[in-house]
Amino acid sequence: MAEKKQQVSRRQFLNYTLTGVGGFMAAGMLAPMVRFAIDPVLQASGSSDMKAVADMSELTNEPQRFDWTIEQVDAWYTSEVTKSAWVYLDENDEVVALSPVCKHLGCTINWAGSEDHPNQFFCPCHGGRYYKDGVNVPNTPPNAALDVYQKEVRDGKLYLGNAVAREEA
Ligand code: FES
């Protein structure tokens, strides 16, 4: 039985070589693009979004505004965002941390912002009002209570996270 010799022709050799080198180069170019496209998915989720915003010793029964900054990541863009909360201790010395964003059209509310309603939150845009606990006063423009911040007290400090609607809190 004659032994058949397996030989690679010059054409086949060139085809294999060019395919291999071309594939290698394509993979080198595509890998960073794929990585760039799915990078936000690979990032750790924002469970560590709680920020220390005040010492517990600073809190009183009177709402005070506290501001802090967070790094916000929107897909590939990172920016610094200032957040605010109205914080006080209720009658049981429980922390109440309210979002300052009016539920009507998003203006910023203030505590005792109206001389006529010194014990309420007041929105200067359209006269929206909220009771101290953040519930909207009936017959004023807002139709929902202020959002409340996720909160945590650790080592004498108040940590706040995201503001969420009351049903989710
Ligand atoms: S935005 Fe606050 S009352 Fe309209």
From TrEMBL:
SUPFAM superfamilies xref list: ISP domain
Superkingdom assignment: Bacteria
Keyword Metal-binding: yes
GO molecular function, one term: metal ion binding
Domain Rieske as annotated: residue spans: 87-160
Record-linked CDD domains: Rieske (cd03467)
UniProt keyword list: 2Fe-2S, Disulfide bond, Electron transport, Iron, Iron-sulfur, Membrane, Metal-binding, Oxidoreductase, Transmembrane, Transmembrane helix, Transport
Transmembrane segments: 13-38
Function: Component of the menaquinol:cytochrome c reductase complex. The Rieske protein is a high potential 2Fe-2S protein.
PANTHER family: CYTOCHROME B-C1 COMPLEX SUBUNIT RIESKE, MITOCHONDRIAL
Subunit structure: The main subunits of the menaquinol:cytochrome c complex are a Rieske-type iron-sulfur protein (QcrA), a cytochrome b (QcrB) and a cytochrome c (QcrC).
Family classification: Belongs to the Rieske iron-sulfur protein family.
Protein's name in the database: Menaquinol:cytochrome c reductase iron-sulfur subunit
